[in-house]
Input
Amino acid sequence: MFTGFKRSLPQISIFHHPSSPPSIQALALLRNALSSPYPPGKKSASPLEFDLEVVETKPPTADQLKTILTYITPPRSTAPPALSIFLSAHPASSGLGEQPQTVKGIVSLAEQNPNVFKWPVVVDWIGGRASIGDVEGVKGILEAIRQQRDGEVKQDEVDQPKGWFS
Output
């Protein structure tokens, strides 16, 4: 009945740190997908359309981290991934002692020492997809948007997060 309301642009956020090489690559990839043909080798393709929000040097909030955890939880899994997925193996992050046990602890630690956080975090809020510290994951998000744009996946077939009204 109101299918026109379902058609909205993907909302992509990148939590970016300019000193992180994967974060720099991911941001360039996202910006290129908006301004150049996508996929890059196909000249007849148009750029992707999505709203890009760049959040520089600030980690996601605790509520955002909780949502991101639901996006990266494998289907049919009852346990979310460990919070350590957000922590870097960067040499400057060693010697921290105990790891935080809550999302608020992760946010607090990342605000105190940005080197402990695994940059970038890229989130497709509408598609329910996320990538943490991984450029390949960003490519996967862009490919899913491309498949949707090109009609390879119908809107109803997209794995949408389940909420109250689904």
User: Anything to note?
Assistant: Helices lie at 21-35, 62-72, 103-112, 135-149. The radius of gyration is 17 Å.
